[in-house]
UniProtKB/TrEMBL annotation:
InterPro entries: PRC-brl_dom, PRC_barrel-like_sf. Coiled coil: none annotated. Pfam families: PRC (PF05239). Residues 18-80 form the PRC-barrel domain. This is PRC-barrel domain containing protein.
Length: 98
């Protein structure tokens, strides 16, 4: 998928309502996981991403800083994000506990 022309979300749009359920892709457009929820606010927002597993079973929640993601909306209005991290790097992160 070419993300070049997708519309980047403004700071005010980077909220739980818009980001929950968004798919995270790596630089090769491979799916890494899905945002389950957010923690914090402002510059300290952490995005909790469910990675691994199959159809939601056996997933592991990990935390990324929001600034590690390029969050955008495609032409259909679907919010998604791209990270420079690989799937293996994200899956190797420690499990996030509430």
């Amino acid at each position: 998928m070419d993300h070049t022309f997708h519309h980047r979300l403004e700071a005010a749009e980077l909220n739980e309502k818009n980001l929950t359920g968004a798919t995270i892709y790596d630089g090769r457009d491979e799916t890494i996981g899905t945002i389950s929820h957010l923690h914090g606010d402002g510059a300290s927002i952490r995005v909790i991403v469910d990675v691994g597993g199959f159809l939601g079973i056996g997933t592991k929640p990990v935390a990324l800083q929001l600034n590690q993601l390029d969050v955008m909306r495609d032409d259909n209005g679907t919010v998604h994000a791209v990270t420079d991290m690989t799937r293996d790097q994200v899956e190797a992160l420690p499990e996030h506990h509430h």
